[in-house]
Design brief:
Blueprint: H1 10-24, H2 30-60
Length: 61
Amino acid sequence: MGTITICIDDETEKRFRAAAKKKLGEWKGYLGKATTEALEHWVKQQTQEEIAHDALALLKT
């Protein structure tokens, strides 16, 4: 398990905590689980965009 220390603006943190609490409930580790889900979603989206970009480039050749 890795550890990442990040700095985000106060409003984003407040909204993230509220959304995580609403979805998962407030228990030890809920922020870590919500952050992991958010990061996985972001990586998946970036991967899909890369695949689409590569496919378009292939179609042009």
